[in-house]
Design goal:
With 482 residues, this protein is mainly α. It has three domains: 132 residues, Rossmann fold; 140 residues, Serine Threonine Protein Phosphatase 5, Tetratricopeptide repeat, CATH 1.25.40; 161 residues, DNA Cyclobutane Dipyrimidine Photolyase, subunit A, domain 3 (Orthogonal Bundle), CATH 1.10.579.10. It has 23 helices and five strands. It is globular and about 80 Å long. The relative contact order is 0.11.
Length: 482
């Protein structure tokens, strides 16, 4: 009996550069079974997104097709991991020598993985976990006095210090082999095709049933999926990287990378991006390359926060802000969601979100500030709505962004710095190109009039609040808990 391994896919939906898979198919001469489990706890989350799930399903299907082309397959189980592996291990001719997975850092995933490790140990099956989603993990980055960082600047200094180490450089260099796979015109067989096909028959197309059923509910266009689509995005972004600092805040331009949905699913990783773009270090993030590099570190920062302080998933990081007296006006919340607030830059962003499943990064900050500090609505309402709509909805980044805007999180925007939506509009969409794209009823309005209240327009609502009045109310609300 030839020894073999099982790899359990979760949010690492790629072969190229997949840390665990890369080691396993070499160690076991291609004898690796690949498994994915649909966990109903995940599918029943309050912030579940039909559109993001479709993007995930299509990505999973792309992975399955590539695995088949490379000599393997993806076994898809329609139950959570404990039930799935209980059934699978009974069906197999003999047990695997090892079961692997790449580590996850969300509270639910950490608990699940701990339980599954105990489950496998009771069956006398070895497990091995790998680093993949992050370049530098929380346990690797601590203060000299112990514990994690809560402020980005010292975190980034330590991150860069570790980044310059020989070990991290080797991690990045390992991505060279993954990039080679992505560049192949014809997939190279790297698994033992005959062994896989003979060992386990995968007849039931559970995945296709999920795709067909979910597609009936989808409301946005689903982008190209998979690791090759992600790599092509990266190559396109590479050509405009030097202009990133100047263009990233202008929503009418395609100045951002567009990689976040692929990072979410693990179709591409930060280490692959760093390798391909040749990122090395930065001082004050003045160039486009440096600025983008700093954004990648921010992404890792929010994962470190979520991993070390899992309570942020449900409450303010700064504990005194748990007691903020939000107004939570349901009519205002509905107007915000539907892009009917009478603030064009806000409404354009919300309509972009609803119609595309995406929203420009600068506009995300504007609409989040508006919800929390103009409408005085709890940031958790906005956070959940974003997760329901965004194709790139990612707990760590989304929570971090919302708590930053609401001034409740780690290293946030100070509570007294409140975005003026009229000035933000004028500064970042001066000619109204972005606004008119998503609010066609304003296409005949002179651009400069888009950056001040529009009243008595039969096709567009007047502002639902007065920014100057709301600003004072917000300051009073925050000062009450100082």
């Amino acid at each position: 009996m030839s020894p073999y391994a099982i790899h359990w896919f979760r949010r690492d939906l790629k072969i190229a550069g997949n840390t665990a898979l890369q080691q396993l198919y070499k160690k076991y001469n291609g004898r690796v079974l690949c498994v994915f489990c649909f966990d109903k706890k995940f599918l029943n989350r309050e912030d579940f997104s039909v559109n993001r799930f479709q993007f995930f399903l299509k990505t999973l299907q792309d992975l399955q097709l590539e695995l088949r082309a490379r000599g393997s397959d993806l076994i898809v189980m329609d139950v959570g991991p404990k039930d799935a592996f209980s059934k699978l291990l009974k069906d197999l001719d003999y047990l695997p020598e090892l079961i692997s997975w790449n580590r996850d850092y969300e509270p639910f995933a950490i608990t699940r993985d701990s339980q599954m490790k105990s489950f496998f140990e009771k069956k006398s099956i070895s497990t091995k976990t790998f680093r993949d989603h992050l370049l530098i993990e929380p346990h690797e980055l601590e203060k000299d006095s112990g514990g994690g960082y809560q402020v980005f600047t010292p975190f980034s200094r330590k991150w860069l210090q570790i980044f310059d180490s020989k070990e991290i450089k080797q991690r990045i260099e390992l991505q060279k082999n993954g990039i080679k796979l992505l560049k192949e015109k014809k997939p190279k067989v790297i698994f033992d095709k005959q062994w896989v096909q003979n060992f386990y028959k995968n007849d039931d197309d559970i995945l296709q049933r999920y795709i067909d059923s979910n597609s009936k509910k989808v409301t946005v266009s689903i982008p190209d999926v998979g690791c090759k689509a992600a790599y092509q995005k990266l190559i396109l972004f590479k050509k405009k990287l030097e202009r990133y600092s100047d263009s990233r805040d202008i929503p009418s331009l395609e100045g951002t990378s567009g990689l976040s949905p692929y990072l979410k699913n693990g179709s591409i990783t930060i280490s692959q991006i760093i390798y391909e773009l040749g990122l090395t270090s930065y001082t004050k993030a003045t160039t486009g390359k440096e600025k983008f590099f700093s954004e990648l570190i921010w992404r890792e920062f929010y994962y470190h926060i979520l991993s070390r302080y899992p309570r942020v998933e449900n409450e303010a990081f700064i504990l005194k802000y748990k007691d903020l007296k939000w107004e939570n006006n349901p009519k205002h919340f509905k107007a915000w969601k539907n892009g009917q607030t009478g603030f064009p830059i806000v409404d354009a962003g919300m309509r972009e979100l609803k119609n595309t499943g995406n929203m420009h990064n600068r506009v995300r900050m504007i609409v989040a500030s508006f919800l929390t500090k103009d409408l005085l609505i709890d940031w958790r309402w906005g956070e959940q709505y974003f997760m329901e709509q965004l194709l790139d909805g990612d707990l760590a980044a989304n929570n971090g962004g919302w708590q930053w805007a609401a001034s409740t999180g780690c290293d946030p925007q100070p509570y007294f710095r409140i975005f003026n939506p009229w000035l933000q509009s004028k500064r970042f969409d001066k000619d109204g190109i972005y606004i008119k794209k998503f609010i066609p009823e304003l296409k005949e309005i002179e651009p400069k009039k888009l950056h001040s209240p529009i009243t008595n327009d039969p096709n567009y609502p007047s502002p639902i609040v007065d920014h100057s009045v709301q600003r004072e109310k917000a300051l009073k609300m925050y000062k009450a808990v100082q």
